[in-house]
Amino acid sequence: MDRLTAQQHGDWIRTLDPAAFSFVLDTGHSHINGNTETYLDACTGLFSNLHVNDNNAQKDQHKIPGQGTFPWHTLMSGLERCRYIGPIMLEVQDFDRQDQIATVLADLRASVDHIKQYAV
Questions:
Q1: Contact residues for 102 (Cβ-Cβ < 8 A; gap 6+)
Q2: How many whole angstroms from its chain centre is CA 35?
Q3: Cα angle: 80, vertex 89, 46; to 5 degrees
Q4: What is the dihedral sign for C-alpha 100, 49, 73, 58?
Q5: How does strand 88-90 pair with strand 47-52?
Q6: How far apart are CA 41 and CA 36, in angstroms?
Q7: CA-to-CA distance for 106 and 64, rounded, in angstroms?
Q8: Using CA atoms, how far apart are residues 15 and 45, in angstroms rounded to an integer?
Q9: Which of 74, 98, 93 is nearest to 25 (CA)?
Q10: 85-112: average pLDDT
Q11: How confident is the prediction for the chain on average, in pLDDT?
Q12: Selection from 92, 40, 103 nearest residue 66 by Cα
């Protein structure tokens, strides 16, 4: 089966009931596929949520933002361009520290501050 392009995804979603269908951008998936900016442009007006996490562009690792190689400046400028104002969900896993929730939460707070530096 052929994969849809970002534009094809956007065009297809636009044919559906907007009260029932929208688009969720997952930064981990878009980073692996190298198409974050393409999806931001092709699906403008369709986004209902962002799933924010980081990885090494090879595997969906769900790292804390800033602990991988995701280009946060691309996301932030794209969100500004799209005028996105919806929910942003941090979607992270840290199996090595699952018994250290306070430390993980502190790192998450620091990661939000890290991302904010790219806000336009």
A1: none
A2: 11
A3: 50
A4: positive
A5: parallel
A6: 9
A7: 11
A8: 13
A9: 74
A10: 90
A11: 92
A12: 92
List alpha helices for the chain, DSSP H: 6-14, 27-33, 36-42, 72-82, 101-116
Tokens of 72: 């946060």
Residues present in the chain in total: 120
pLDDT, one tens digit per residue, over 32-46 is 999 999 999 999 999
Please name the residues in contact with 76: beta carbons below 8 A apart, sequence gap of 6 or more: 115, 118, 119, 120
Confidence of residue 1 (pLDDT cuts 50, 70, 90): very low
Q: Which of 51, 41, 46 is nearest to 5 (CA)?
A: 41
User: What are the angstrom distances between the C-alpha of 1 and each of 4, 27, 38?
Assistant: 9, 24, 21
Tokens for 105, please give them: 């939460």
> Helix, strand, coil % (nearest 5) of the chain?
45, 10, 45
- Is pLDDT above 90 for 116? no
